[in-house]
Amino acid sequence: MNVRRNAAALAAIGVLAAAAPAVAAGPSPSPKASVPAGLYGKSDPTYDGVWRQSLTLVAQRTLGYRPATAAVGWLIGQQCANGSFAAFRAAPANACDAKTVVDTNSTAAAVQALHATGGHDAAVTKAVDWLKSVQNKDGGWGYNPGSPSDTNSTSVVVGALAATGADPASVRKDGKSPYDALATWSIPCAHDGGGALAYQPDKKGKLVANADATAAGVTAALGKGFVAKTGKAPAADACAEAAHPTPAQVADNGGAYLAAAIARTGHLMSAMPGATDQPDYGNTADTVVALAADGRTAAAKKAYAFLEKSAGPWAAQTGPAAYAQLILAAHAVGAQPGDFGGTSLVTSLDALGPEPRMQAAAEKQAKASDGTSHAGVWWSVGICLVAGIGIGFLLSTRKKRQP
Q1: DSSP 87-156
Q2: Main-chain phi, psi angles of 264, to 5 degrees
Q3: pLDDT in tens, 280-335
Q4: I need a labelling partner for 155 at 20 to 30 A (CA). Which of 164, 293, 328, 350 fits?
Q5: How confident is the model at residue 272 (pLDDT cuts 50, 70, 90)?
Q6: Do 356 and 32 form a contact (C-beta atoms < 8 A)?
């Protein structure tokens, strides 16, 4: 989900505020760019418009909602003719040109969102083809075309490929797949930070453990994107040495590192340069998804419990991508996002943009998930209505709503 919150990555890409820790800017609009109709959130979308919209649409579809036409239309309108996406295009009616800074993260996120909403095969295919065209020789991807590969960018692209049914292992450049790249960033068990993944090698070629990159790399190594459920428990709790780790070994070793990192407090700490000593809610939410996908249920639930107790103010301040991350974390551990520390993540998210609608086939499940209704309550209400006035079903009204 994503998102790519490594300090080096932030320096390279400007900012992905959807994934920023608690120091993220407040929701008031920036004078740099107005927020267009159809886009979720109130803050300046310059650096994260496509990212936060994509996470929102994925979260809504995961809950069984059909996103609003205006919301999907805004995202589609951001695509360039060659299939790529920029972080935000203030004037989408103008064709993309050499000055349009497109990137792999926004494109891969949009792929997952548009595939999830359905009915946009041409746009998805063009985006995937563009991603394949900018793959690096090591099998990975950098944030911008031609930039050095990194774990976070490679992982979000793997998520896009997997979401569309492609086998990431078959997407190769010079014989190397993204799984080959992830293995090269996996730190050997005997080294400092063993089991973790680095964002990318430093200038001296050294691998330094990065929790954000590790969470992204774990889900990618398991062939997952933004949406993941609890997987099979790993064979061993500890890091297992391997000269040439398989994707499963990369994931299990990374999972062991993350489980140890949150063992005492249930959360990760902010690694942002200059940030005060505080929890990193966004990275912790990604860690919940990664741990759950790797079958480390107890650790995932511990981290989720911390978020449920403490992350509400962060989400309210940060915006739609934060709510979406928390919804996807709840999904990963089988929790109800409609009852998150006494509030509804679903209602909070949907209030920040166009209201989605319910699909009939998913109505019962979504009512339980969004916290605005519960099975026992609705059964009782239904009986009273049928007996008293003959009305069959009472549908709750819903208000729905980074950078």
Answers
A1: S--S-TTSPP-TT--EEHHHHHHHHHHHHHH-S-HHHHHHHHHHHHHT--TTS---SSTTSPP-HHHHHH
A2: -80, -45
A3: 999 999 999 999 999 999 999 999 999 999 999 999 999 999 999 999 999 999 99
A4: 350
A5: confident
A6: no
